[in-house]
Amino acid sequence: MRVVVKLGGSLMEDALPVMNALIARFGSCGDKECISILIIPGGGLFANTVRSVCEKYSIKDDAAHWMAILAMEQYAYYIQDKTGINIADSLESIPFGVTMLLPYRILKDKDELPHSWDVTADTIAAWIAKQFGAPSFVKVTDVDGIYAEDVVQQFLTADDVLKMGATCLDAALSLFLQENNMDCLIVNGKHPERVIDAVVGKDIVGTYIKGNI
To answer: E strand or H helix at 39, and its extent?
Structure first.
């Protein structure tokens, strides 16, 4: 079983309990489920710094795109420093357990995504899930899901989200899910137990987005 988990940069202050819970639960098979969990780091404050620099110095989209992806790798090294998580820069031979991916090399080798601030770690994580052949894509963030009229929506289609305007997703993800018939589950990483349940497919508080129906 393969699962891709996008670890939001907005969770920097709460990321370590989530990662430690995942590593403790899925770090080795034993008598537990044998799952390959690939963590895609968000950009967080590192990407925000890139955005500010790009705006201040009028850096073009191509350069900004690669700078922001390198910012994702800075977040990955922060997580590794605090947790000792395994790191990979290729999708080949990802072992069972929990692995943090450095995305720059993969995206450079197969440059398929638009170079725009509409494409952030959300869409990059979905694209990697597609390359990895992972049927499950979990977005771990700092909110319970997508809200409408102050209520968390349990189920939405990608088309529903496209019609809603700004949400906790980046601007490109909903269309990517729709075009690639992929689903996404949004879960609040401030509750590590919810992330564990999301990975194993249990019902949780969150928003399930169906790519196509």
So the answer is: strand 36-41
Longest dimension (CA), the chain: 54
Q: Which two tokens stand for residue 152?
A: 């968390």
Both structure tokens of 148: 């409408």
**Number of neighbouring beta carbons within 10 Å of residue 139:** 29
Type of residue at 59: I
Q: Which residue has the tokens 């072992």?
A: 95
Tokens representing residue 205 in the block: 């508080």
Range list of H helices, the chain: 15-26, 44-57, 61-83, 104-109, 121-132, 158-164, 173-180, 192-200
Alpha carbon separation from 153 to 81, 205, 208 (Å, rounded)? 36, 9, 8
- Report the distance separating Cα 139 and Cα 40, nearest Å: 9
pTM of structure = 0.95
The residue with tokens 């420093």 is 81
* 103 touches 74 (CB < 8 A): no
Tokens of 27: 């770090």
Q: How confident is the model over 13-25, as pLDDT tens digits?
A: 999 999 999 999 9
